[in-house]
């Protein structure tokens, strides 16, 4: 087994600058690597990463320390029947019918409100002026929470994601995450109690009412799930939206093709998830010793599965370092279901419950943005730079466009 010294270290600035170069070295030279500082194995090949997600021997016990201190106990930690019952309680709200009938208008209105603030200006930083607000505003509205508290929600989810990705164990990040748990509980528990007494047609009321085989969710369960939703549904979709535009702007002919044929948006989003996934790594803890490429993973140790590396494995995707909306070896039909072949939403029983919501948000958002900015472009000489190691996306995306265009597409 190789050691971390031979290839760019996961915690090094070199890795953060260009993880994709490092991923190639990981896949080729160190498919199973022990990282001493992280106390974790690292796997990078497509077959290994997809096995880690699918094979139940790889438990999610790692979330006991990686997430429970900030969220409380959530669905991500559960397994077996306990997990399937909990999943059945929450999943209906995120399926196609419910999404279309209840939440599509919320998604459309939130996107339009953000675009209205800049459509006449002729310029916007898509990251700070749109993407970081859009998905979180949608979840806040879906749950029936107060948009006036937006800044607090954003601070909370940013500290939760930082806690999850605190690979270097920075004590300041740990303390901020623990503070968030206390603050979020103090905010949320009275809201949940009130919603039980005065239910409405929002997702929070649905969660309060949900019951399967006599099992329902306690106030603490619901609070933990809402905390997970803010973090899992906020930063991820935010980065995906910016990355989609960064990828298209770098390839004007593909941007033109998507602008002219909006049915290509899901393909462009699926390719974005493969090429530049918002979540670059996910951990697991095997219950028994397991053989993977390059050696044995010991029971109880942590395994870090590099989604960003697996999605660019040349054994799975032809010419993997090329962004191509028209590639034939990535299925856009299954990209947002548990039958997906890219690994950006993981696979198996913890496959992202919000994948269809993310797809709907990106379809609505991309359609409205393309309508509002028909001639969108980057300033001359500007090249987007990605930032982040655990989660990753464009740091900033300043766009120029001719103001005054109206939204005309069917999605608006
Ligand atoms: C592009 C956007 C998104 C990406 C890339 C993404 C990624 C992921 C990944 C990788 C997992 C699996 C974690 C694991 O197996 O350890 C996951 C699970 C999950 N995601 Fe997402 N997510 C996205 C959007 C959303 C949205 C919009 C929501 C809801 C508002 C959401 C809610 C969840 C939940 C609740 C789980 C846990 C499912 C379970 O444990 O059964 N995600 N997501």
Protein described:
The protein is α+β, with helices and mostly antiparallel strands and 412 residues long. It has helices at 13-17, 19-29, 46-54, 63-66, 68-71, 80-90, 96-116, 126-131, 134-143, 150-164, 171-197, 203-209, 219-249, 252-260, 265-275, 307-310, 355-372, and strands at 2-3, 32-35, 40-43, 58-59, 123-125, 211-212, 215-216, 281-286, 290-292, 295-297, 302-306, 386-387, 393-394, 398-400. It has one domain (2-400): Cytochrome p450 (Orthogonal Bundle), CATH 1.10.630. Helix content is 49%, strand content 10%. The strands form 5 sheets. It has a 6-stranded mixed β-sheet, with helices on both faces. Strands 5-14 form a two-stranded antiparallel ribbon. Strands 6-7 form a two-stranded antiparallel sheet. A hairpin with a 2-residue loop joins strand 9 and strand 10. The radius of gyration is 21 Å and the shape is globular. The protein starts with a strand and ends in a 12-residue tail after the last strand. Protoporphyrin IX containing FE (HEM) is lined by residues 60, 75-76, 87, 139, 228-229, 232-233, 236-237, 240, 278-279, 282, 344-346, 350, 352-354, 357-358.
Q: How much helix is in the residues? A: 40-55%
Proportion of beta-strand residues: 5-15%
Kindly give the count of domains.
1
From the 3D coordinates, which CATH architecture would you assign?
Orthogonal Bundle
What is the global morphology? globular
Ligands present: protoporphyrin IX containing FE
Strand order of the largest sheet: 1-2-3-11-8-4
Count all strands and give the number.
Answer: 14
Structure annotation, total helices: 17
Mean pLDDT score, rounded? 93
CATH superfamily: Cytochrome P450
Main sheet makeup? 6 strands, mixed
CATH fold call? Cytochrome p450
- The CATH class, by name, is Mainly Alpha
